[in-house]
């Protein structure tokens, strides 16, 4: 698994429907999970210039099987996998994983394959025809994260996340975001 992800020892389990546990989440966490606009824009609104992106993983690799099924991709074909840490002054806020199929990169004129530390949201939300196709939710237990993530962030509790399939000019990409405890603390 380490060659497919910096973040996960095993892929999270996703649900398209709200669960009973999800309905008991704090209003603050619910608002992040259900955000319909740009996460980047919201984080910049809160943290300003202190907000940043750290690139953790950027490789052409096969995606997880469930990601391939969702995007209707052959499981062995390589996709661009990008994993990042969104932070403010080094304080970890969000762990994110993006699956970018080659046709999507081509239709976006390669703007998506060379982001570096630039937030994905700044690029995709600039497309006037960006379409949100579906959203799923997951609760990742501490045992699902790699030792590298545990060393960096020391996740001692389950972390909730969302996974959204977007389309640009009809071509899909998949963005998963996990909201870390520091994001939900008062600034």
From TrEMBL:
- Is Kinase a UniProt keyword of this protein? no
Which Gene Ontology molecular-function terms are recorded? Answer: chorismate lyase activity
Top-level taxon: Bacteria
Q: What are the alphabetically sorted keywords of the record?
A: Cytoplasm, Lyase, Pyruvate, Ubiquinone biosynthesis
Q: Which InterPro entries does the entry mention?
A: Chorismate--pyruvate_lyase (IPR007440), Chorismate_lyase_/UTRA_dom_sf (IPR028978)
Q: Which family does it belong to?
A: Belongs to the UbiC family.
The name under which this protein is listed is Probable chorismate pyruvate-lyase
Please name the source species. Answer: Methylomonas aurea
Identify the gene encoding this protein: ubiC
């Amino acid at each position: 698994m380490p060659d497919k992800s910096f973040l996960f020892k095993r892929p999270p389990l996703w649900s398209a429907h709200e669960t009973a546990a999800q309905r008991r989440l704090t209003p603050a966490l619910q608002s992040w999970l259900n955000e319909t606009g740009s996460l980047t824009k919201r984080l910049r609104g809160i943290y300003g210039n202190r907000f940043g992106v750290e690139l953790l993983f950027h490789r052409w690799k096969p995606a997880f099987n469930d990601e391939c099924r969702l995007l209707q991709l052959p499981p062995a074909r390589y996709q661009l996998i990008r994993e990042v840490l969104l932070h403010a002054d080094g304080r970890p806020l969000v762990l994110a994983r993006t699956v970018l199929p080659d046709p999507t990169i081509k239709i976006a004129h390669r703007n998506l394959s060379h982001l570096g530390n630039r937030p994905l949201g700044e690029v995709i939300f600039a497309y006037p025809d960006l379409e949100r196709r579906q959203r799923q939710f997951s609760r990742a237990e501490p045992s699902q994260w790699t030792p590298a993530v545990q060393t960096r962030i020391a996740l001692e509790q389950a972390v909730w996340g969302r996974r959204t399939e977007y389309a640009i000019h009809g071509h899909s990409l998949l963005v998963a975001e996990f909201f870390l405890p520091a994001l939900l603390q008062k600034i």
